[in-house]
Design a protein that fits this description.
Blueprint: E1 6-9, H1 11-19, E2 27-32, E3 39-45, E4 66-71, E5 76-81, E6 85-90, E7 93-97
Parallel strand pairs: 1-7
Antiparallel strand pairs: 2-3, 2-6, 3-4, 4-5, 6-7
């Protein structure tokens, strides 16, 4: 029996869910790290600007298909690869990427 708070979505939709989160509002993202293939869960938020040190990024996160978020677990900014996100807990729901 499916959980009524679980919504199965496409890869594109899961990335929209991450991108549309209000600045500073917490959500949880499940993803697979590019570097070592380990599964990670992160409590994070979009749009946190308080801890910026100034300057410009040396790369374009959109071109590299990254979500740049504030990690409450690490206490710093982190980037999550769009293609590696498999689950997001936000808006009182659990968004899960459909298996192809």
């Amino acid at each position: 029996m499916a959980n009524e708070n679980q919504i199965v979505v496409s890869r594109e939709k899961i990335n929209e869910v991450v991108a549309r989160q209000e600045p500073g509002k917490r959500f949880v993202v499940g993803f697979v790290k590019r570097s070592d293939g380990s599964v990670r869960w992160m409590n994070c938020a979009n749009g946190v600007k308080k801890h910026r040190k100034g300057g410009e990024r040396a790369y374009d996160p959109v071109a590299k298909r990254l979500h740049c978020v504030w990690s409450f677990d690490a206490g710093g900014y982190r980037s999550v690869a769009s293609e590696s996100v498999f689950e997001v807990h936000a808006e009182g729901k659990r968004f899960v990427v459909e298996d192809n």
